[in-house]
Amino acid sequence: MKSSIRFFIISSLLLVSAQVHAAELNCSMVFDSRQVDLTSVAYSKKLFDGITTGDQLKLDDGSILKFEDVFLKNKIITKVTFPNTSWKGRSEFRLNKDSASLDVIVLPFENAPRWIKTKDTVGLDSKKGTPTSLYLLLRTLKKVGIKAGELKELIVDNIRHPETTIHLGSLLRDWHKSTKKSVMKVSDFFSMYEKTSLHRLTLLLIQQSGHQVTGLKLKPHADDRYLKKIFDPEEDIKTWLGNDDAAADKLTSYYADQLNRWKNGVLDSEALDKHIEDLMLKYKLDDLKSDDKVPMDFSVIYELKPM
Questions:
Q1: Three-class secondary structure of residue 234 per DSSP
Q2: Which tens digits make up the pLDDT trace of 270-290?
């Protein structure tokens, strides 16, 4: 039984070092946070059980989604194509002795089908089906043999997902303006993180794979050289905002222009640049200068129990 799953949010297809950075969860681009009202969704065992792991999936409209799964030493690489469109995706899922890591998931948002609906499976929505992002993540879990409700922990690692970091950057800037503080409780940071579409997608993955969240913890750094690695909600964390010299450990941040530095061969770089510009406007951070910062490379640990 796998006791934990490491869920790395990455888009770079070239993993050139042991420290993997999360550049872009394009999967979450496909998932619109308004797609699903979490308060109205219940766990459906039939949904998870009905996810198939074959190399083809026929949709209600007659089109076929194709999967190519390649198993290496401790990794499964899945390539996804949607015939007659330019849409394609790729995921890499690494298995360790007691954990599994979703290293790469790249889904360009242009022409991407936002819902998967088939005649033979139960959908999250009876009319539309299941959000594409959620379906593909659940398929990956099943493909590597993870059963519903068996995980103890899910880690969204080294977050550098543009919408999440920009959204949090906006919320943190507003918080600093109103409080004049630079140190906050981890629980207060989580109250901001819980508003993001990335958190909503993760909750759906957790719920629809037969789990429920019992707690959250924060790893504020990507750098494992820090002695203090994991923070409970009641602990203090220091932001980059203000000049407080408090001894609290610091949340990792980078300059905002780092968000579009990581390109890949699947996602069009111009589309990514435009996406980031739109996000800056959406979250009212369009006045950010290149030397302004947003939170990046932190990790959120979801502690789980069976549904």
A1: coil
A2: 766 777 788 788 888 777 665
Q: What whole-number distance in Å separates Cα of residue 199 and Cα of residue 231?
A: 18
Instruction: Of 234, 43, 69, 214, give the one whose Cα is nearest residue 143.
Output: 69
CA distance 163 to 281: 11
Nearest residue to 223 (alpha-carbon basis) of 251, 199, 244 = 251
For residue 185, list its beta bridge partners: 236
Helix (H, G, I), strand (E, B) or coil at 205: helix
Please write the tens of the pLDDT for every residue from 215-274: 999 988 766 655 567 899 999 998 988 776 666 678 888 877 777 665 444 555 676 677
**Given pLDDT bands bounded at 50, 70 and 90, which one contains residue 172?**
very high
- Residue 79 neighbours by CB distance under 10 Å: 14
What sign does the dihedral 79-82-84-85 (CA atoms) show?
Answer: negative
d(CA 166, CA 12) in angstroms, rounded, equals 19
Residues contacting 68, CB < 8 A, separation 6+: 55, 78, 79, 80, 81
Structure tokens at 141: 């879990």
186 three-class SS: helix
